[in-house]
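thought: fold this chain, then report.
action: predict
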Amino acid sequence: MMYRFFSRFYPKNIRESYTKLLKYLDMKVNPDAYVGFTVLIGLLVGLGGAFLFGKFIPTLNFFVWWILLFFMVEVIIYVPLMLKVDKKAKEVETILPDALQIMSSNLKSGLTVDQAVLSSVRPEFGSFAEELNRIGKEVTTGKSLEKALMDSTKRINSEKYLKTMELLSSGLRSGGELAKLLDHTSSNLKHQKIVDEKVRSSVMMYVIFIFFAICFGAPILFGLSSFLTDVMRDIFTKVDIPTSVGAKMTMPMLNFSGIELPSGFVMTYIIVTIILSGTMGGFIIGLISKGKEKYGFRYIPILIAVALLIFFLIRLVISNVLGGVLGL
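observation:
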């Protein structure tokens, strides 16, 4: 009851999204209770983290830390569920052509439709084997094959699977020969898989370019520029223009003593920029390689970690090599 109360803090569309994800994963939990639990965990973790970070990093307000950490926890909970649903869908799409081919062979050998579906189940099909078993049992207990196929699309979040089941259902309604329809569908799916693989291989160069630009190009340039900023700041602070010389100057000159660029501001700007670049780059890589931005979530931590590591490493190397020469 308490968890359902906390679930009301979430908008309706997010609660519905959680409901669909839990249904796709076949998790026997109440969606509202699950959402309320995630909200409560996010509030508690955000509260504890806000006290901790607010004490050691006081540049941000306590409530700002709380809100940031709350959303971070919610993303950490939601994204794995979404990726797990997509992983299940990809497995089904990979297995589907072979499963349809086996069903067609079973029908040609004289089996009924429900027997053909049940006989096509193989242990290597994984989660799809359970789905085929469920379809076969539903047909055996009296549900029409068309209805059983369409109901299965509500448990698998795959557009390719949905279109395949709609095609098969249309063929069943029109009275076509199911074995031939299964053969043609399986052949088309295999051909589409080959085309998708060719497209991915052709865009791989763009993925590699984005990866190197974010992980190596930007960090190296930021490392050099941050060191140059420190050098210029050190030089400007040591410049001492005599008052008599400054009084004789009639042209407007730069006032070196008025230039203030804190080192902390530069480092904060660079780190924030690297994090934003890694986040956007991950989404772009997911869009190019997989067709959807959400597949880029898995690349974001890698891009950010590698980019920050390269930045601090370059900065350390430059400081050690040139710092002694310049007397910094």
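thought: worth noting. Confidence is low (pLDDT under 50) at residues 245-251.
final: tokens above.
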